[in-house]
Amino acid sequence: MPLLNKEKMMQGFGKAVDAVNNAADKAGRYAKEKELDKKLDHATEIVDREVKKVGKSIKEIFS
């Protein structure tokens, strides 16, 4: 008698894959619903603008 039941193992792997796919789908729906891509783009623009200001200030200090 084998120690592992191949059929039960494969069912378990299938359930794990289904759970991961379900979690990925939920994460995708959440990101789309909350418009996270737009918020991230906006935050990036703000950080970019502020970094440029700091760069100009440093340049003025050392000029």
If you had to describe this structure to a student in words, what would you say it looks like?
It is a single chain. This protein is an all-alpha fold and about 60 residues long. About 85% of the residues lie in helices and about 0% in strands. The protein is built from two helices and no strands. The longest helix has 28 residues, at about 5-35. The protein is elongated. The mean pLDDT is about 90.
List keywords for this structure.
2 helices; mainly alpha; elongated; 63 residues
Question: Any chance you could write out the topology, listing elements then pairs?
Answer:
Layout: H1 6-33, H2 36-62
Helix- and strand-based class? mainly alpha
Radius of gyration: 25 Å
Assign an overall shape.
elongated
- Low-pLDDT residue spans: none
Number of distinct beta strands: 0
Our estimate of the beta-strand percent is under 5%
What does the largest sheet look like?
none
Estimate the helix proportion, in percent: over 70%
Task: Write a short abstract of this structure.
With 63 residues, the chain is mostly helical.
